[in-house]
Batch of 2 targets.
Target 1
Amino acid sequence: MLQLFDTLSRKKKPLKAADGKSVRFYACGPTVYDYAHIGNFRTFVFEDVLRRTIELSGTPVNHVMNITDVDDKTIAGAQKAGVPLKDFTQGFEHAFFEDLARLGIKKPHHTPRATEHVGAMIELIRALIAKGVAYKTADGSVYYSVKSFKHYGRLSGLKMDELRAGARVENDNYDKDNASDFALWKAHDAGDGEVGWDSPFGKGRPGWHLECSAMSTQYLGQPFDLHAGGVDLIFPHHENEIAQSEGASGKPLALHWAHCEHLLVDGRKMSKSLGNFFTLRDVLARGHSPAAVRWLLLAGHYRTQLNFTFESLEAAEGSVKRLALFRTQMLELAKLKPDYKLTSAKIEVGTDEKAAQTACSAAEKAFDAVLFDDLNTPQAIAVVFELVSETNKLLATGSLSEKSAMLVLLALEHFDHVLGIFPLMEEKKLPADLRKWVEEKMAQREAARKAKDFKLADKIREELLEHGVLLQDTPSGPKWSPA
Ligand code: AMP
Ligand code: ZN
């Protein structure tokens, strides 16, 4: 079972499915006013790995991710572009789903849009007013009274005496120093233009925090099992979600809270507001592969900050290429095509396969163990490369049989249930392309050697090595293998 750090109790604890059947999982989704940047995708890849690890443990997951398609930023963006809000947000929502697919992130089972759930939000506000924890203001807005919720601040560690008594914030985003009553419903004003819904409190629109409270419980019930997001959402967003949902029903919102640390650039959070961001599209346009981006994001533990550099992305590129070559080599040895179908039951293991079998089953166990211990993806990657080097040792001694290569392929498949890297490479036909490229380079080197241009021949050899390909001259001609 997965042991996962819980932000609320501040300790690792087993992640359970309360109904004994499936883990009900809510993740805060994107605000669709621009393309998402790779910092955002660090959190979305983390949530994908979290889901895949739970699935690997044998428990199905019901994954819900909202789409914030109405808030201050989307309204401002639509006005600047001079188009209706829906037209503006739909393009970015579509781009977001495209980006998720490019990074091999499994699509959540439900992706509710805020604008299509305003009725449920209004109901929640009514319940909060009835309980006496929310109040209307003269302009037709509704605010949550944080002082009236005794658990306010428990998730983020905010102390009640740090609250500014009676103060109100209209903006959805504010810091702990300005913790105050926050808007559940924002009365319509000139800045909102066409955007607004009629409600018992007057025309207006919901606050951002309210969107998640209403949609999560509508799709998953209350309490649900797991709530996740980036660490910047702990305060005020998740604190406010808890206040709203628990304040209305008296029941906890979620039983487990998981937060992913930030992706940094030069030591600062990658963010739109600081302008130090790269969208996934920027990075791919520079010629990087989605597989390398995913690999880079997996290479840091989710509870540790990760500094982004193009050098580290290059290194990730090298790692995925090495892995792709290794897989190609195993496919060749196993005499299988990339789309092979294989189960361990079909492989008759004999004495020739003993060594590979021992190495593979130890690696699979180690892989599961490190992931089930608070999702240690860097360790999981280390396990994968340990198996690569064990296998290379067997190859070097000539003791890797055809069936052994099949066992190694099955181990790679096991890892990929969570790492999800090979489908991204197949999409780009990386192994095939790379192979062709390697063969072309080898032919060029042979031509250089024939022309006695040994300098060029060595340069090509080095170039291959830089791409993780080791060239060796054997009595039967040059042969390549993963370095
Ligand atoms: P947003 O679209 O701004 O609401 O953000 C979507 C998700 O990305 C949220 O879960 C944020 O916590 C997360 N996020 C934003 N910036 C970063 C970053 N630099 N590193 C990791 N996650 C981030
Ligand atoms: Zn949310």
Target 2
Amino acid sequence: MVKRVDVQNLMVTGGCGFIGSNFIRYLMERADFTGRIVNVDKLTYAGNPDNLKGIEDDYPDRYLFERADICDFECMEEIFSRHGIDAVCHFAAESHVDRSIKDPGSFIYTNIVGTFNLLEAARAHCESFVLFHHISTDEVYGSLGAEGLFTETTPYRPNSPYSAAKASSDHLVRAYGATYGLPITVSNCSNNYGPYQFPEKLIPLIILNAKEREKLPVYGDGRNVRDWLYVKDHCAAIWTIMKSGRRGETYNIGGNMEMENITIVEMICDTLDARKGLETGTPRRELITFVKDRPGHDRRYAIDFTKLQTELGWTPGESFESGIRKTISWYLENSEWVRRVRNNEYRSWISEQYGE
Ligand code: NAD
Ligand code: TYD
């Protein structure tokens, strides 16, 4: 087992998104990472420079940003060479299932072709290359019935264009390990929640709509089950795998926290109703609106992370109760971030910076 990764120049793709930005913040504060991070992000609608506010100033010698599209192979090659990239932690993806249903094309390019380009760039630098860690999702396994858990050997059965594209990228990464001996690890994680999540996903959307007393859309009967993990626990799991995971292996990451969507929505309503300053008016549960179900909506996800727990000693640290309280507080306390995201204000900053 490799006990530490001696990484000098780590490329983090998608570092301005939800999990990527949390991961960069997490890693920069760790004593066991002394290398440099090169954050490669295209800044799509989901990539927000505000998510990493202060990082460049706090770590001028150890953090730098490259605005680039992972679908552009020459550009990836050039960034690998210029920065001497010796490891990749690959988050960049189109990540929202509903968008993948309406417009699957960008999911195919970014999630599949983009991953292929990064693998090819890493292969070209194989001699000095330490690790390609690929971030993936439990959604590749498809949907569970009332019983059972996804393990690392559950057959892939993706049901949405998003999960199908992620599944394809997982296969490519594994194949580069097997065929070219590229040092790879893959992690398949359950649903994350926490600070900096774009408010199109269930939890931030419901928090912000409930705060503003807007409708709370719940798909179908609201009884679909997801296994929730606080984002910082995901970051810790990723770093554990990067440091000590066996090369060529896949690790499932989960929160041991299965919840029906309706339960989460009700919990958020009740927490806001009880909060000082937000308590007046009718109960927020009255805002819940059952809407048309998502096509191909997976019924239940649940993760068995025994392998990660027994081999590498990782377990989630945050309970759902404490994690959701922290998350709600974060969205209430960061109204400037919320305002800018909701009004798309950082787009004008991007236009100014990059002349678009
Ligand atoms: P996100 O949508 O918040 O962020 C994605 C980031 O990738 C953005 O910063 C975006 O600008 C960037 N990006 C998109 N296309 C790009 C391209 N072509 N080139 C360069 N950058 C590009 O996503 P997230 O929720 O942070 O998810 C990150 C990764 O984790 C994804 O691979 C996703 O599949 C996986 N994952 C997410 C969850 C979850 O609950 N959010 C759970 C398990 C796995
Ligand atoms: P989401 O946050 O989009 O994550 P994923 O689809 O990757 O699991 O959705 C989580 C669950 O919440 C999923 O079962 C769909 C449901 N959902 C709603 O009921 N209403 C909404 O407005 C959204 C965005 C999701």
